[in-house]
Amino acid sequence: MKIRLLIISFLFYIQLSGQNEIPGVDYRACSTSEKYNEIINKNPIIKALMQQQNNFAQEWTKQNYGKTNATNGKKTISYIIPVVWHVIHNDGPENMTKEAIEYEIAQLNLDYQKLNADISNVHALFSGIVADCEIEFRLARIDPDGNCTEGITRTKSNHTYLMDDPYSVRPSWNTPTRKYLNIWQGKNISFGAGGYAYYPGTVPDEMEGIVLIAQQLGNTVTHEVGHWLNLAHLWGHSNDPQDPANCMEDDEVLDTPNTIGRTGCRDTANSCGSVDNVQNYMEYNFCDLMFTEGQKQRMHAALNSSAGARDYIVSLTNLINTGTADPYDATPICTPIADFNYNKTFLCEGEQVIFSDYSFNATPTSWDWTFNGGTPATSNLQSPSITYNTKGIYSVTYQPSTTNGTGFKQKDSILYVSGFLADYSTAPFSDSFEDLPSFESDWWIIPNANFNWENTTVTSATGNRSIMVQNISNQSTQTTEIISPSFDLTANNYILTYKYAHAKKLSGGNDRLLVYYTTNCGKNWSLLKAKLSSTLATAPPTNASFVPTNTQWETDTINLSALSSFNNVKFKFHFRNGGGNNIWLDDINIDIATSIDETENIKSFSIYPNPTNENAAIFFKLTKDVKQLQIVVKDLLGKEIAPVLKNQYLKQGTYTFNINQQIKLASGIYLIEMIADGNRKIEKLVVN
Is residue 22 pLDDT above 70, yes or no? Predict the structure, then answer.
């Protein structure tokens, strides 16, 4: 028989409404044959290992169950499996409650013990081989360090949105996979996947386990645990249900009929010469309700094999060490792992913030809060409401307790309170970031680990300081924000100007700089200006850490006339990493709107490399369409040496033109002149 083990099982939602199926029933679909083939092609040892496991399962079954599929008649629990459920969340609905997780474990036990409420609906042809798998799953009661646990961890991380990479979903405590069944649950797996699992011993220890998304649990958990226990899908490893070739495959289980793989719940479906077991948990349908005796035997074989340490996981020694042996404590009293949430981050003076207990690992019986800058400054309520009367940035400390101990959590700089009156009531306002104490008191940097705006003396557009984000080596999609002091804009129509510098990497990038404003202390932000990668770059691409020269700064202008009725306005500069280079800001000014320059159409006119001994390129940006643009090379006396462009029509955008490929300039100093609809720019070029 052909080996039909799969390395990974991805599950997708697809809606089915066919004439011969049950209308509207969701079904699972799998697309992992490529993953399977990729892994065994790269590592033939894994393929041989999988064959060894299959041989072991067959031999173990013969020795322990005989040659028939008859049940051993026991109505008991033969195997207990310790479980740790890791919640990877970003304070969204994917942060499942303890009660919801305990419900999933309870349902898992019903399915594996033939106690599910719909078991009476099994098709008559399979009623004689429906298995009580005699397996019980229990949330761990002792963690790897020997401490009391409820078997649930919680980690706030953006990984919840992309649970594809098994290595990326391990930010919670490093639970040994050779002691526990680890379930990592988050919000999303790409391509709509609902979950995946690995077969015993086919991956490194740190990858052993199951990954799920919160939107698709229930029988999906049962299905993925089946894979973890060495069960394959019913139609072979093609991962392509309804392929007629699947009739030639099998799952190495004698009592599951061969099938092409069903995508509906018609219980009389016949695809390979016999009625399909569409109600099997290892099918893709959501009408599944049973395992067979043969599948039970194969799972028991896996639990007696050293592959993936499944035999040790269910050993009495490990059950004692994980707190899952009898007598099992269903309601342990542990020390809380403190955490909390709050209903707002930005507020005006005099407003209230409601705090909520988000502790886990125990249900606290007392709560001890300390609120820096709040009124009252302390509280013993589970969910206190605290008033903040003075503008500033504030921290909170929380200590929940049980009779077993007290947890501790401090969150710094989480509340941003704005004053009723504007910080600056008259224009002009100008900040070149030279006065460090004023910068630190006026500007709010929203902390984001190691990805933040910072005041620096490395370079500047004017003076000695600017602000920048070290972006060249950071992870894509990270964001950082800096918030200005507040301004009264009611006296005149104003403009906001700022200087910026940025470069892409040679391989591109999609960085973005967004400018927002708020008129209600930050509770709501509205977009003023968006500069995406195509309009953000002011210098040629480079893979070196970008530090702008004097000519690589640009000035952007935003008309604020629409805000002339607001007397308390803040601005926010939001930068998002898209794989590009460093970003720099300087000279943020607010002035009367008459300073707007509507005629400028050339930005970032520069030449690189300069000096050069071979070829050079001209880099520039047009802020509007140009009807006539010319670029010429001149000597120091103004005599034209050669044209680069003559009277060209160019649309708004960023351009690069090469020079000296045909001109063959001799060593010396030259002038590169650009004229765009009458606007003239000149840069020197040194040829060595």
Answer: no
Mean pLDDT within 409-415: 96
Closest residue by Cα to residue 344 from 416, 412, 395, 418: 416
| pLDDT surpassing 70 at residue 597 | no
Q: Give φ, ψ of 610 to 5 degrees.
A: -150, 110
**Per the structure block, which two tokens stand in for 540?**
């040629």
Three-state DSSP class for residue 311: helix
CA–CA separation, 306 and 205 (whole Å): 13
Residues 6+ apart with CB under 8 A from 411: 340, 395, 396
- Inter-CA distances, 380 with 243, 353, 355, 364, Å: 63, 15, 12, 12
Band (pLDDT 50/70/90 cuts) for residue 315 is very high
Instruction: Note the pTM of the prediction, 2 decimals.
Output: 0.76
CA distances from 64 to 59, 72, 246, 273 (A): 9, 10, 30, 31
**What is the rounded average pLDDT of the residues 374-378?**
98
Q: How far is the C-alpha of 452 from the C-alpha of 509, rounded, in Å? A: 19
Distance CA 64, CA 300 (A): 10
The 10 Å CB-count burial string (b at 16+, else e) for 107-121 is: bbbebbbbebeebee
Look up residue 165 and give its amino acid.
Answer: D
- Across the range 358-382, mean pLDDT stands at 97
Q: What is the pLDDT of residues 482-500, one digit of tens each?
A: 999 999 999 888 999 999 9
Q: Is the pLDDT of residue 613 over 70?
A: yes
Residues 104 and 215: their CA atoms lie apart, in Å, by 13
**DSSP state at residue 418:** E
Distance CA 351, CA 373 (A): 12
538 within 8 A of 500, measured Cβ to Cβ:
yes
Confidence bin at 660 (pLDDT 50/70/90): low
**What are the φ/ψ torsions at residue 150 (nearest 5 degrees)?**
-90, 0
Amino acid at 537: A
Termini Cα distance of the chain: 73
> Helix or strand or coil: residue 160?
helix
- Give CA–CA dist 643/631, Å, rounded: 6
Which amino acid does the sequence have at 84? V
* CA 560 – CA 493 distance, rounded (Å): 6
Using CB atoms within 10 A of its CB, is residue 252 exposed (0-12), middle (13-18) or buried (19+)?
Answer: buried
> To the nearest whole number, what is the mean pLDDT of the chain?
85
Is 34 noted as a catalytic residue in this protein?
Answer: no
Q: Domains (ranges, CATH) in the chain?
A: 12-321 (3.40.390.10), 342-418 (2.60.40.10), 429-595 (2.60.120.200), 602-687 (2.60.40.1930)
- How many whole angstroms separate alpha carbon 282 and alpha carbon 214? 20
Q: How far is CA 84 from CA 142, 293, 314, in A?
A: 10, 27, 14
pLDDT value for 37 = 56
Catalytic residue among 224, 252, 283, 293: 224
3-state SS string for 557-576: EEECHHHCCCCCEEEEEEEE
pLDDT at 232 over 60: yes
Contact 601, 626 (CB under 8 A): yes
CB 622 within 8 A of CB 676: yes
- Please choose, from the candidates 173, 164, 210, the residue with its C-alpha nearest in 3D space to the C-alpha of residue 191: 164
At residue 217's C-alpha, the angle toward residues 298 and 124, to 5°, is: 55
